[in-house]
Design a protein that fits this description.
alpha+beta, 5-stranded antiparallel sheet, 7 helices, 5 strands, 41% helix
Length: 147
């Protein structure tokens, strides 16, 4: 478990806004890159509740949607709260993580190089790898690799 202040996400752009949401939560897993452009992906837990969230940011309004839209910190915080995945307990989180296992056909097409599946995974920053990271933080095995 990691305190918010000790995460890479806290040093990312909008990390101070995200702190208003997850500042008193334990960050159980993260995949973040704090640079002039980057992203933050976190899995946090507090009192048995879980939350998963990720955001991307740029260095200017040309590559940062929130800046381009002129959003205030309060509006960004509201969006973070509204669009984060929230789970009442670990069992709910585990069911969400297991959804990909239930759809091996789409995983298989991704593994076999389907241009669309590959593009979606690439543009989302490697969703399968992030899901496997979260699964590992919970002691779950990685998603099965389709044959």
């Amino acid at each position: 478990m990691t305190a918010w202040a000790d995460t890479t996400a806290s040093r990312c752009r909008y990390g101070d806004v995200a702190e208003q949401v997850w500042g008193d939560w334990d960050v159980r897993w993260e995949d973040s890159e704090a640079d002039y452009q980057g992203h933050a992906t976190i899995l946090a837990e507090k009192d048995g509740r879980w939350s998963f969230y990720e955001w991307w940011y740029g260095s200017c309004s040309g590559c940062d949607g929130w800046e381009a839209d002129g959003r205030s910190d309060a509006e960004i915080e509201r969006e973070m709260r509204d669009t984060a995945m929230w789970f009442d307990d670990e069992a709910g989180l585990r069911r969400w993580l297991d959804m990909l296992e239930g759809n091996p056909r789409s995983n298989a097409s991704m593994e076999r190089g389907s241009a669309l599946a590959f593009g979606i995974d690439f543009l989302s920053g490697g969703l399968r790898g992030r899901i496997d990271g979260v699964r590992g933080a919970l002691g779950l095995p990685p998603l099965p690799v389709p044959e």
